[in-house]
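for ur thesis appendix - GntR family transcriptional regulator. copy paste whatever u need, i formatted it the way the template wanted (i think)
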Amino acid sequence: MTGQRWTSQSINYLTPRSSESSDAWAEEASQKGSKGTQSILFVGEVTPPRIVAAELDLEPGGVAVVRQRAMYLDGHPVELTDSYYPVDIARGTRLAEARKIPGGAVTLLAQLGKAVAHVSESVNVDLPGPEIERALQLTSGEPVLVLTRTSHSREGEPVEVSVMTMTRGTRLGYEMKVG
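the 3d part is after this line
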């Protein structure tokens, strides 16, 4: 991330915010003395990748709403995020529109009665294909960190699966209360 060490904590992105708040990414970057922006690349109904479809409990060939975004730190691309939502939750809401969501998706999910209550994440390092290399301005063979997050409602229903592809230098921080 432009040569600096950066530790990001997922909880910042899972907590509903005021609709007047800046987005979590812009706020986190600002706290670190940088400028975080994002652009929406695509929003629409798609057949998601197999692993995402399984996490959303979709039948084979099932459809989800995807929001594809590029995240920038001080003008440099640092992350591609694809967030998938079940169509019965997203269709007809701002989740299915190619514009920013006041307070972010988790805020809207909470307003829709689908507040995030349980999250699972998996992290792996991968070598990206040429399309991701170009989008993140990587050199050939440069690895990326891929975080896949599945969010469930209080009722245990999957409400969002996000696949975040991050540039080298990203660190994830986890804290747990035990006992």
